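Predict the 3D structure for this chain.
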Amino acid sequence: MNNDIHRFTGSGPHGEAIEGLQLTAPNGTVAKFIDRGATLTHLFVADRDGTLDDIVLGYDDPAQYFGPHPHVGCIVGRCANRIRDSRMMVDGATFMLVPTHGPHHLHGGPHGFHTQRWDIDADAMQRSVRFTLDSPHGDQGYPGNVHVTATYAFTADSALRLEIVARCDRVTPINLTAHHYFNLAGATADITDHMVCIAADHYLPMDTDFLPTGTIAPVDDTIFDLRCARRLGECLISNHPQIRLAGGGFDHHFVLGGTGLRFCARVDDPTSGRQMSILTDQPGVQFYTGNSLDTVGKGRLRQRAHGGLCLETQAFPNAINEPAFPSVLVHPELPYRSVTEWRFDAASKAPTQSRSPLRRSPS
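Done. Predicted structure below.
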């Protein structure tokens, strides 16, 4: 083990063992993980003055990740997002999943991957942390045995990369994502001054149960056109019915064009100068502005609505029940694989105008 990786241990609320690892990137960026939920607990990134600050929401005591919380920092699955009526059909057979959100199934169920103790190990040569988990047949109602490997690594240019591979022994839906809450200004501010750009020409309108209606709608001439960076504070007060439905903000799936690892989204905090670009090979990204956040986080600070934002790269929600959506069914002969990268930088001064590489959206 070298200075780039540090191992630590702790205990849960009932004496459960907690294992953790800390990675340091070539440029000094620091990431800390624990085995519970394969959770990213801290991410220290420099601002324009070179000062490191933690830009992800979480808790001071690792034991707090054992209690109920809004999926902070963890990997969720076997299927991220919502499945209508907790019901799905696979190979002609109907399966009932464990409900989480009213009658619907959310983020893999109440005992989904975010609640599990993953095996954790490190590779000093690769500056990486590898998590592994076995999900048995019938887990939360899903068919088939699934073996998952999730590897976080710092690249040579200090980007944080997550690669997830899942193998099954029979056809089953798999849709995994990392549920990080980011606040580039640090824990003492909200996200209203953040500038956000998402490379999506379409999004999925939702119904009153936060499930997609099945329509793939263009973002043109709507508040959902984030192809040019917008200040979030202006978006959150929009009178658009979908924004009001979500509780005063975004909780919507954006449809990404293209294939392979490509630009997905960009977030800028003008105050600190921190900038985050996200690349992914997934077909979409769920953008959530923490509309219902209400938790006591690090430093005993209460994180309220809009205290952080999530950009969860993933397949479409409820895709198992929507024939028009790309399939989330995985077969034994072709493993599931996803890659997401977070790249960080710092601007020398606050931006005076949008710098999105995409075309300008209407005001």
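The first strand starts at residue 5 and ends at 11.
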